Amino acid sequence: MKEVILIFDVGKTNKKVLLFNRNLKVVLEEEDRFEEVVDDEGFPCDDAQKLEQWIKETIRKYLSLNDYQVKGINITTYGATLVYLDKDGKRLTPIYNYLKPLPEQVIEGFYERHGGLTEFSRKTASPELGMLNSGLQLLWLKRIKPEVFKRIDRIMHLPQYLAYLVHSQVVSEHTSIGCHTGMWDFERMEYHAWIKEEGISLPDPVPVSETFPMALGGRSTEVGIGIHDSSASLAPYILADREPFVLISTGTWCISMNPFNQEPLSTEELREDCLCFLGVHGKAVKSSRFFLGRIHDLNVERLQEYFFTNEEAYKAVDPGIGLISQLWESGEEGQLFFRKGIPEAWVDLGVDYRQFGSFEEAYTRLMVDLSRLAVHSIELILGEKDRTKDLYVCGGFAKNPIFSIILALTFPDKQIFTTEMDNASALGAALVIADKIWERTTVSLDLGLSEIKV
Q1: Domain 2-225, what fold?
Q2: Which of 168, 217, 349, 382 is a good FRET partner for 410, with 20 to 30 A between their CA atoms?
């Protein structure tokens, strides 16, 4: 019978179950899709009842397998969501969606009482993001649904609630409480004073590696406390014990994460969409965001319409290092796209496509100019005392040769790697509890690295 760690990787739509062996390789993976329901105000949200039932039934199923012995269980999911329990330990409300609009009256006067929006955001490393600042969900419930708020006995973020369903322990941990929640004071490294002033009681964070021994299916199983998915996806790189690095996660957003920059978040960095969150070791991870994928897709759609190409045409564009280098070295003076910044609708209507001889030429210029903006976002988090040796690029743009080459041209003193690692968040959730389960020699993690050289 093979010993395994069971991981729930809970996305908004897709819900995965994975089994990891002692070498932290996936030996089994299953996936489900859940349709959203609506909350008590008619706004879309996760189906809490179905999710709870799925977790309990899945654990029963895997505990009964003859081929595997489940030695550990952990959960990773999105963290910007709070769950409220009554005095009997029962969930009080739907799992409210962090995209739910936040009425202005909820925060009326709030920021002014705490030094103003800029100072509050700086101290909590949390740009103003509405309900994505999960602490504001508490204010919303207190102001809009006071009768429900009065019945709250305990509060947890979603990763900890889903773990609570297994071990029944009410806990908090740094990766959930420290991710743009507006709850954590990054100067004092404790809950912000407003939590106590509003009469809110929250559990003190414990290490994300914490587990609780449970007798499940007649065997002893270590159950983790859950982990925020963003920090979980970063954990394999941190725990691989490599040189200081920046992880550049690309897709709809280009999110750059630097676990080695401990400089306080500045007001200017906040203005440029930077924030900090707490990583698996409870230390600040400075991050920046740029809407790379969405801006790319909208502008490519317009190029496709003009040049009558199919929607896959851009994937075949590989102009070579020479042309990319030439366009890059032309600097901002040679820039054609986004000379005046990013328009509100994300599409640059000011570029005359007649100057391009082909779709390939136009796309290359678009990617060079767009990459210049992404590079600025990355540079924001390097810090004055930059120690990083490696840049890891994962996600969709890791397969874009123009983007990768420009990173190599921009940072000649660093090694640039593309990385293809499946199920990074699930692997991170397994990694943080593995040492509680097995006395392990160093496991060689396959980060799927390919070095980019120019």
Answers
A1: Nucleotidyltransferase; domain 5 (3.30.420)
A2: 349
CATH top-level class for 229-419? alpha beta
277-310 pLDDT, tens digit per residue, is: 999 989 999 999 999 999 999 999 999 999 999 9
Q: What does the pLDDT look like over 77-119, one tens digit per residue? A: 998 999 999 999 999 999 999 999 999 999 999 999 999 999 9
Report the 3 state secondary structure along the chain: CEEEEEEEEECCCEEEEEEECCCCCEEEEEEEECCCEECCCCCEEECHHHHHHHHHHHHHHHHCCCCEEEEEEEEEECCCCEEEECCCCCECCCECCCCCCCCHHHHCCCCHHHCCHHHHHHHHCCCCCHHHCHHHHHHHHHHHCHHHHHCCCEEEEHHHHHHHHHHCCCCEEHHHHCCCCCCEECCCCEECHHHHHCCCCCCCEECCCCEEEEEECCEEEEEECCEEHHHHHHHHHHHCCCCCEEEEEECCCEEEEECCCCCCCCHHHHHCCEEEEECCCCCEEEEEEECHHHHHHHHHHHHHHHHCCCCCHHHHCCCCHHHHHHHHHCCHHHCCCCCCCCCCCCCCCCCCHHHCCCHHHHHHHHHHHHHHHHHHHHHCCCCCCCCCCEEEEEEHHHHCHHHHHHHHHHCCCCEEEEECCCCHHHHHHHHHHHHHHCCCCCCCCCCCEEEECC
Domains 2-225 and 229-419 alike in fold: yes
The domain segmentation of the chain, as residue ranges, is 2-225, 229-419
